Amino acid sequence: MQRFKLLAALSAVALTASTAALANDGLLKMQQNAKDWVMPLGNYSSTRYSELDQINKGNVGDLQVAWTFSTGVLRGHEGGPLVVGDVMYIHTPFPNKVFALDLNDDGRIIWKYEPRQDPNVIPVMCCDTVNRGVAYGDGTIFLHQADTTLVALDAATGAVKWSKKNGDPGKGETGTSAPLVAGDKVLIGISGGEFGVQGHVTAYNMKDGSIAWRGYSVGSDERLIVDPAKTTHLGKPVGKDSGTNTWEGDQWKLGGGTTWGWLSYDPDLNLVYYGSGNPGTWNPAQRPGDNRWSMTIFARDLDTGMTKWLYQMTPHDEWDYDGVNEMILADIDVGGTKRKTLVHFDRNGFGYTLDRVTGELLVAEKFDPAVNWATHVDMKTGRPQVVSQYSTDQNGADVNSEGICPAALGSKDQQPASFSPKTGLFYVPTNHVCMDYEPFEVSYTAGQPYVGATLSMYPAPGGTHLGNFIAWDAGTGKIKWSNPEPFSVWSGSLATAGDVVFYGTLEGYLKAVDPDSGKELFRFKTPSGIIGNVNTFEHGGKQYVGVLSGIGGWAGIGLAAGLTEDTAGLGAVGAYKALSSYTNLGGQLTVFALPD
Amino acid sequence: MQRFKLLAALSAVALTASTAALANDGLLKMQQNAKDWVMPLGNYSSTRYSELDQINKGNVGDLQVAWTFSTGVLRGHEGGPLVVGDVMYIHTPFPNKVFALDLNDDGRIIWKYEPRQDPNVIPVMCCDTVNRGVAYGDGTIFLHQADTTLVALDAATGAVKWSKKNGDPGKGETGTSAPLVAGDKVLIGISGGEFGVQGHVTAYNMKDGSIAWRGYSVGSDERLIVDPAKTTHLGKPVGKDSGTNTWEGDQWKLGGGTTWGWLSYDPDLNLVYYGSGNPGTWNPAQRPGDNRWSMTIFARDLDTGMTKWLYQMTPHDEWDYDGVNEMILADIDVGGTKRKTLVHFDRNGFGYTLDRVTGELLVAEKFDPAVNWATHVDMKTGRPQVVSQYSTDQNGADVNSEGICPAALGSKDQQPASFSPKTGLFYVPTNHVCMDYEPFEVSYTAGQPYVGATLSMYPAPGGTHLGNFIAWDAGTGKIKWSNPEPFSVWSGSLATAGDVVFYGTLEGYLKAVDPDSGKELFRFKTPSGIIGNVNTFEHGGKQYVGVLSGIGGWAGIGLAAGLTEDTAGLGAVGAYKALSSYTNLGGQLTVFALPD
Fold first, then answer.
1. Who's near B56: CB < 8 A, 6+ residues apart?
2. Is A86 labeled as catalytic in the residue annotation?
3. Catalytic site residue from A184, A266, A290, A320
4. Cβ of B586 and A524 within 8 Å?
5. A426-451: per-residue pLDDT in tens?
6. Predicted ipTM of the assembly
7. In percent, how much of chain B has pLDDT > 90?
8. What predicted TM-score, i.e. pTM, was given to this entire model?
9. Angle A20-30/A2-17 helices, nearest 10 degrees?
10. Tens digit of each residue's pLDDT (9 = 90 or more) over B506-542
11. From A525, which residue of chain B is nearest by alpha-carbon distance?
12. What residues of chain B have any CB closer than 8 angstroms to a CB in chain A?
């Protein structure tokens, strides 16, 4: 506990000084310390890369389980542990328990936080009762509960410092995403894309939970926080009323771009990056137009929320290709020039590389060859060229459009990729799933599902496997290697300086592969399917790898919620039925290390 | 699957031949094959000893986790896995799922059985919704469900062959114990000692589930299945009406010696051994007399149920010292002579050694020095000499008798001990817990608790630890060594020819110790507290050790059922409160092996 106490003391000083700069500096340094794992995606750039190299390509095959911990909660465990000094923080799906575990004592529980939440929130969580993790900053753990309560917990004691309601579950607004702490603020989005919820990201002042700014995905310029003349879309000012003028009437009020994914931050540019989700109702006939700014990458100023640029990937969505996946900030070579890029693997199956300073589109290529809904992205307009056969709008409501790839859960969902600066490659957990999609007319009732489509999902043509784990060259937009997996890879990957890449599988395997070839170096069957994100840390001079097991999430919703109809779980249940031969529910942490 | 198919084929032959002798022979041989683990306590003698020695005193420190499996069920996981050829069978607490796992494929699920049971059975399970395991015989897996359904499942497919109701949950009769397969019969007891249930053991014909015989613990000679002239108690005939004549009036009808513990079998003598539990109501003032045959060891003929001998350990129980713990059959030296003995560690704190042929009492000594309710056992009469200060009957109803050792959950509960013929010692998981006990008048209502006492429990004087793991010399009745444990040891131990003894702890550690000294050789923190029993088996030339984690049971009832009042859980909640700093609910199997 020595080191932790020191950190806590330092944090206290920072809080007393109470300046954004100080707080910012503390976490800025901590996210660069490879011994800790202080934010869900490892660092502000969301690279999920660690400089630790004790576990390496040569010895990873000897990895063994060091200790384990049951969370006591069933259903899907997304996200992963944080490590700050001698303490690990883990979280659970609803009811969103948080545990502080003593790394000096095989994970003894230092404190636990067990919120009491109205279970009525469960039916308004579209795709399992998941939570993607807590955030750390200034001696505080921030948790975004299912009921949208954002709570600040004393990292040393678990005592509640403050709590704020970020939304209203009665309207279908829920919390599943992990907060981001940056500067003196803690930022959080909102879930509920299947309930006609308007998306927004809100910056709370860490100190007291007061709101610094809230930027919506749809609505007036003021709500969006855009400057019509300065905020750009592919280099051009967005102009006035961009958040309403591509919608018919008031439809924008019923669903616009929820923000349930990951947040990244560039401290030099002071910009926060994230994506927005689907426009309201999955029946595209009910909402003509581009439906801006759903399905959009946002770059906002941390201090003011002002949108510097945005880019809509899937105008007028017809397939539920939410744009919320992580934004990885990496400086890579594109066309012979080193660029400050943002790399994003979208649900729509395209891997995008943008200039993160300007929002310029540099690369947009398919990261799964099965993708067929669009032929390509026009690099000038940024628009995908939709294939009529797979246009659920052109085919019309009450028509079953067959064979669309990817399925609604995308060529990749929220499970975050990793980037190794050593290889220059991105390691991407992907889905290899297609669908039939039949839209239908739906009317809005607050708090009720607002979906308007019937789906079924199945493996992409030519095989039976539902996933691939791939290495991607974001400078050229090409797959370097691809490992087929029986099921979607729904676990966040980890790349390390030890030349190893880790990821989990839905059957429950933690796997380690060679970053250059994808060759499997290690596998271990954890107690339940893995939809959590792998992390690594050093403690007592030893490198550890940790991951949460706990089958569930959208891909595992059949097991998690006990659904058996093929079209249940928004179409996912049928595709993943075979999972039940491999694993059961159960939330466990497994921590690995090399033998002494 | 090769080997398993062969076994199944052999079993089919045996069933066709349909003679007790053949079936008997098959399992007789299998229980001697150290590569399998075909019955919950390892073999008919319930020694929990394995001839496997690949894992030994010298290398056990290198043990590592080979694979893991989540059961998807929370609450207490008692019992342990069976292994038959290439297949492992594991079970869960309510709802009593059974999984057949493929040992050739990291525990892939070959089949699962998920009974639908009325959840109203949960409130009539006194001490968590535990189940102590399934039994194997003739290609069939036998499960005793919480609702008392005894079900026969095809071991290859999980298909139900037959199912029978063994009791009525509406009257508080429940199923928690593991069946015993012997000859052409499957035997099972019944739980419900806190609901005024009359205990019985029933022998079902394996083939079709018809009843061969049912022997009660109380009632008429016919119900008991005794021969007044030939059935003996300490060498003397029991005489007529022995099951009613030590009760006042009809009180015997409200609670007599439930049979929720373990069954052992001596094929040479063709005798089945087990113990009965407490007499009805914990308030002794309501039931004057010895209350025979509660708290009694039974030796019954397998074919007819006829009682050969019995021995009542705690006449007129005043402390809930159920006599159901396992009967270990071992041929050991007593007073210079090799005897066919039965060794039993009773809840009342005495370790008994009897001649299992005749029922002669050879040794009765305290296996926890804290035991204070009796000074000693009179070896002639077999009666304990009760200390007035700790007699809840002499102190009277509505008086709180303080400082009684052991507590109601005994110096040892159902967690089975092991016996190593190599050392001649018994390895006993024990409780080191005392109690205050205040009886009160209670009236009987079918299906309602019939307890009549308020208890609180705490560590035995002179320390804070709640358990010991001990080595016992049953020939002399002496503790060879004793390892204090922070909490009760509620896990069944395993002794092996590799000179290692294994057991689990409530914090979740699997530990390996030196059988001669108790020195710790290995420890590993499994996901949840261990109340399951450790087993071992060989597969593909490699020795494995397996154990179920999953905190709960009587000691863990606070965590399992979310109880917080100190006197809740029949007094156990207060004593074990600190457990919540170490572990959470969760059912997982962890399988260990040496590195390749």
1. B496, B498, B499, B500
2. no
3. A320
4. no
5. 999 999 999 999 999 999 999 999 99
6. 0.93
7. 95
8. 0.94
9. 150
10. 999 999 999 999 999 999 999 999 999 999 999 999 9
11. B67
12. 62, 64-65, 67-72, 74, 99, 106-109, 112, 508, 524-528, 549, 580-590, 595
